[in-house]
Amino acid sequence: MNKLRIKFLLIAIAALVAFAVPAAGQVTGGAVTGTILDPNGGAVTGATVLLKDKARGLEHTAETTSAGSYSFPNVPTGTYTMTVTASGFSEASGEVVVSLNQTATANVTLSVASASAIVNVTSETESIVQTDTSQM
To answer: What is the Cα Rg of the chain in Å?
Structure first.
C-alpha cells in the first residue's frame, strides 16, 4: 500500500511541475525602449524618462545611459504619457502605447532650454568728458 501512495505522489508532483513551467514563461506586458538625443544628434546622458499609465496612474522611471538609451523591460499594457527631462534642455512629452509582448520604440530629440539673464544697469553721475572747459 505504501508503494502505491509513493507512486501516486510522484505522478502528482511530475504533473504539477510539467504544467507549472509553461505558466512561468507567460508575458503579462510589453516593453518600451528608445534613445534621447540633443539637437545635434548627440546622446543625452542622465536624462530622466517617466512613463505614467493614463488609466491606472502607475509610474515607471528610468535614467538614460552614456549612450542616451533607456529601457522599460516589462510594463503593463496600456496607453502611457512619457515625459523626458534633462538639465539644460526643455521638457518633452508624448504618448506611448504598450501592447502585449511587443516593444514600443520612442526616440526623443530634446531642444535646448532658453537662456535667461538678468542685467542690472546703473548710472554714475561722474562724466568722462568735461563739458565746462575745453581742456583735456
So the answer is: 31
